[in-house]
Amino acid sequence: MAKNASFSARPAAALLLPLTLLAAPAFAQTEVKEDSVILQPDKIRDDAPVVAVRIEMPSWSEDNATALLSFIEKVGDEGLFARDYYPDGLAAAILGGDQAALDKAATDRFLLLATHLRDGRTPNAARKQWFMVDSDGDSEPLLSLLTAALGAGTVPETLASLDPVHPDFALLKASLQTAKTPAAANAIRVNMERWRWMPRSLGERYVVSNVPEYLTRVVHGGTIIATHKAVVGKSSTPTPQLNPMATGIIVNPNWTLPRSIINEGIGATIANNPASARRQGYTWTGSGKNLSVVQLPGANNALGVMKMEMLNEHAIYLHDTPSKGAFNAAARAFSHGCIRTERALHFSGLMAVMFAGKSPEEFGEAIASGKTTRFGFDEPFPVYVAYWTMVPDGRGGVKKLADLYGRDAPVVASFAKPGRPTATIIAPEPPPVVPTIPTAARVTTPATSGIY
Q1: Catalytic residue among 166, 220, 338, 346
Q2: Which of 179, 322, 355, 449 could form a disulfide with 185 if both were Cys (CB 3.0 to 4.6 A apart)?
Q3: Which of 220, 228, 319, 346 is catalytic?
Q4: How far is it, in rounded angstroms, from Cα 34 to Cα 276?
Q5: 34: pLDDT confidence band, cut at 50, 70 and 90?
Q6: Element containing residue 160 per DSSP (H, E)
Q7: Is there a catalytic annotation at residue 319?
Q8: Is 338 assigned a catalytic role?
Q9: GO biological process annotations for this chain's record (predicted)?
Q10: Phi, psi angle pair for 167, to nearest 5°
């Protein structure tokens, strides 16, 4: 399979595990209440690039400025809006004959457009529950790009190079040209935006869960090697978007219950029927508000046989579940925010063998022991918990998914408003005149001799 294959592609490889591990035990179909998501407030402040206001203003030739204007006029192909970059003002500056005015007009527009291409146009306030960290600002500094583009005369090519590299973005971009209605075009723009909110390249190996698609994929060497059904957060406990680093896989995990779930019922069971709580694998210390509860590994454990170790402030992770029936539903939004993973033995075995360097036999022994075992990854890798509502349809086009949490509408609404800002570049001010300091008169006495 081609590197960076589309997420619609079928797995190119499968982990060969001992046959005894491929048949998961028929766990009881119980109500599962795994760790609840810790809802964080949305980011409101726009972290626009910080650009020094007193720099040597880049000098724009007429050719470079005209190339920028041509790119702006066609920027609708990128899912952006030419009006944001005031093409008429740039055209007037090109014809005006004032070099300083042209330098400022072209530089401001380049930096704003490059900001939107690299980081997305959408203000943070419209990016609901979006907490992914995008490091493109470190690898693609805008002023360096601008300087190089002007020197080489490659302004359009430099701007185009900021597109995300994943083929799914290219497919969305191509599909925008054939969108039949404004609503369809906006749906595509929304998802092109979401790709820009992420790192330009996702990396060579990663796990990605697309919440509206109810699927988790494992990518290794740029190729999808496994696809698993997923159960995601219900509308009252939605799964946020984030990209923590995965550091290991834990098999036969303990489950430390959050306070919200203790209060929902197990606290009362411990108080009124402790024997029943023990049969379900619960142990505890304290009482009342100080009650701390842990569920031991076993068939009834809410985390099942595995948990992906991915530390984050939202308490989100991938894990197994004893409620296998949920994977049979078409719409699988049942969890408290975490992502339940189908075929968890295969998933965790893949993690242990491909990413932790263990043999299938070592993994099988750990599972069979019933004891909590951690397999640390040789190199941590990102887990992308994404939210794409337009995805490849497998026939060269795209298809629309249900907007599970209603997160498309705020992005569409933002299209009618100004986008994220970039810092304004102004020409450097001349240094202040150094004042003359009065001093005592200096008198030179003529020498009385020609010899010193």
Answers
A1: 338
A2: 179
A3: 319
A4: 19
A5: low
A6: helix 155-160
A7: yes
A8: yes
A9: cell wall organization; peptidoglycan biosynthetic process; regulation of cell shape
A10: -60, -25
